[in-house]
Amino acid sequence: MKELFKLSYSKIKEGLGKGDFSSVDLVNSYYDRIDETQPKIKAFLETNREKATNQAKTSDERRKSGKAFSDFDGIPVAIKDNICVTGEITSCSSKILENFRSPYDATVISRLKDKGFIFLPRTNMDEFAMGSSTENSAFQTTTNPFDTSRIPGGSSGGSAAAVSSGMVPIALGSDTGGSIRQPASLCGIWGLKPTYGRISRYGLVAYASSLDQIGPFSNDIQGVVDLFSVLNGRDERDQTTAIGKSFAAENVKTKSWKGVKVGIMPTNASDWSPSVLKKYEDMKKNLEKEGAILKELDFSVFSYSIPIYYLIATAECSSNLSRFDGIRYGLRVEGSGKLEDLYVESRSAGFGDEVKRRILLGTFSLSSGYYDAYYGKAQKARVMIRKQYDSFFKEVDVILQPTSPTTAFKIGEKTKDPIQMYLADVLTTSVNLAGVPAISCPAGVDENGLPIGMQLTTSHFEEESLLSFASALAQLPDTAITLPSQIQ
């Protein structure tokens, strides 16, 4: 039973259903793995073995009495530190919320509880989800399980590293500009950014409200399908959730590529690593062998995605983070007695450098005299990005491109150059601007054994097709990745 952590999500679900092992066996196996691996990977900010074991015991009792909540009852899931769980600290990896305990459950947490999942909070992240490497956490730097001298991606790096290293089979993250897909790619696992409005954001600490989406990580495609099937759907507490958009997990089936129109992008990008470029070319050839019809699309408009994204995201973060003022909740640093000093001292001590940088950028773009010149124009340009995707999906069924232009880079390599760090999201931000769904799929490794991910994108609310294409992509040659947890 000690090796249960090496199993895929699908094998775990099957084994629990057959009674081959119990939820307690499973949780103990994962916590033994956490004890072994956490000191090197630092994926979790805290773990509560006793609480998780008690949840597992209750789950086993339900299964024995024939009253299991669902087929998922007793499966462990890790939670990113910006998703609220009743009674648990939700710090967003920031000192300003270091001791804040949530008084309520996020909608996604309530839905997971209703199905009997076991919670392993809290996974590390870039502070307030602002970053692409998980180096911006106020508490620790998470490392990549394939090479601990490298970053796992961000901002959901803790969740991705926890799944990749075998500390948990599935996890939740949030994606504002690539924060699920990019770490999934760099850690060799599956990560889905759903259509905007598919999953409730109630209980997700806001970074950029018009871009944020919660989504799943898994060590196999079935885990993504199952988690999405549980989480998606209308929520009256989040008026941005879509009405009448159903999803049927049983409709997700491996598709034949024969006759499928696949949109591809030009491969003359100088900032792509040679290994990513070669993998992309090889995958296109394999798709053609399978009968897919490749169509090169004009991605020139998407060259504006990074500036559009950072204007909108920083403006919204400036507004959202204004609530952390040292008065209502969170860190309070007493100043001279003046109200303004209380604001300044609390925010100066509580926020890290990257959060301060983005607040300042956003405040500037929203300021009088600059709103129309910057934020207003960015919103108009955002419509241009969405219309471009709409035109693409009149021509193709799915778009294939790399998730990240490079494999995982060294810790500290880009921290002194924010622009280079921002460009790590160059292939992912357009998806959030348009609100379309996308998934990062494992696609093999480079010459150093580092994972490469490929991103599939479909039109709005086409997750059934997207996940079916993702399943088919996994059948192509040289896409399988052996995770560190699976090495014999």
Structural notes for this entry:
The protein has 488 residues and is α/β, with parallel strands linked by helices. It contains 15 helices and ten strands. The protein has helices spanning 9-18, 23-41, 49-64, 107-115, 157-164, 181-187, 221-231, 274-289, 305-320, 339-350, 353-366, 372-392, 418-422, 429-434, 463-473, and strands at residues 76-80, 118-123, 170-175, 190-193, 213-218, 261-264, 293-296, 398-402, 438-445, 451-457. Strands 2-1-3-5-4-9-10-8-6-7 form a ten-stranded mixed β-sheet, with helices on both faces. Helix 4 (107-115) links the parallel strand 1 (76-80) and strand 2. Helix 2 (23-41) runs antiparallel to helix 3 (49-64), helix 9 (305-320) crosses helix 11 and helix 9 (305-320) crosses helix 12 (372-392).
Q: Gist?
A:
It contains 15 helices and 10 strands.
List the helices and strands and how they pair.
Layout: H1 9-18, H2 23-41, H3 49-64, E1 76-80, H4 107-115, E2 118-123, H5 157-164, E3 170-175, H6 181-187, E4 190-193, E5 213-218, H7 221-231, E6 261-264, H8 274-289, E7 293-296, H9 305-320, H10 339-350, H11 353-366, H12 372-392, E8 398-402, H13 418-422, H14 429-434, E9 438-445, E10 451-457, H15 463-473
Parallel strand pairs: 1-2, 1-3, 6-7, 6-8
Antiparallel strand pairs: 3-5, 4-5, 4-9, 8-10, 9-10
Helix pairs in contact: 2-3, 9-11, 9-12
